[in-house]
Fold this sequence. Notes:
mainly alpha; two-stranded antiparallel ribbon; 273 residues; two-stranded antiparallel sheet; 4 strands; extended
Amino acid sequence: MASQLRAAFQSNRHFMAGALVAAASVPAVTLLSDDIVHPPAFPWRHRGYFSSYDHAALRRGFQVYREVCASCHSLERIRWRELVGVTHTKDEVTNLCKEVDVLDGPNDEGEMFERPAKLFDKLPKPYPNDEAGAAANGGALPPDLSLMVKARHEGHDYIMSLLTGYMEPPAGKVMMEGLYYNPYFPGGGIAMPPPLQDEGVEYEDGTVATVAQQARDIAQFLNWTAEPEMEERKKNAGLNMLVLMFLVIGSGYMKRLKWSPHKTRKIAYVKGM
Length: 273
């Protein structure tokens, strides 16, 4: 019997080895069918269950948005007051508002007028309407960035990789005029030129403004614009879990208190005389 098993194993070992090699190569073959490079997973401070945003990075990210991205992209879901206590103090945000004029009205005479922005106003748009934005960018409307992190799979990794992934197209890759090669963008061709440059901004805290640093900061800031309630949500979750723990302990104690007499009692039956 043992000799028969040994012979069967030797005859099938080549088949088994080939099957293992084929199974191991399946994921690679599947990934090669994609038209984009999937972004790597970067370490982010705010991803932990009890972690908060890096508010210094949020302040730097807002600076990158304001000096680089705001010329084309909007943040329609963010108001000035939401920056208070997150990236700037109230006085700092108030001073930033004074630098922006918004269209308001009508006044008593039925005319529209411009006034300095206030805390309850939304951040300004780069274009008066979508048609103007598309016309200024060759027919491609720059998307709003308020929810971009949620609109893309692993959005913070995607933004980080996209902003640092510009490169020369590989041999044989034909690029249409006006497009730039970026393997992290679907199809590899993106109309947005590389927006970040080394020392493109001068950080107030003295941080060296490399392309990678700017991309990391703007990715964290856009994560905050998509989830400004994240820190409060985590605090509430911690309190809820604490209350739940006491409820479980109390329920267990009451269960033992109420049921222990029933579980420990003894019932004896006596035959009738």
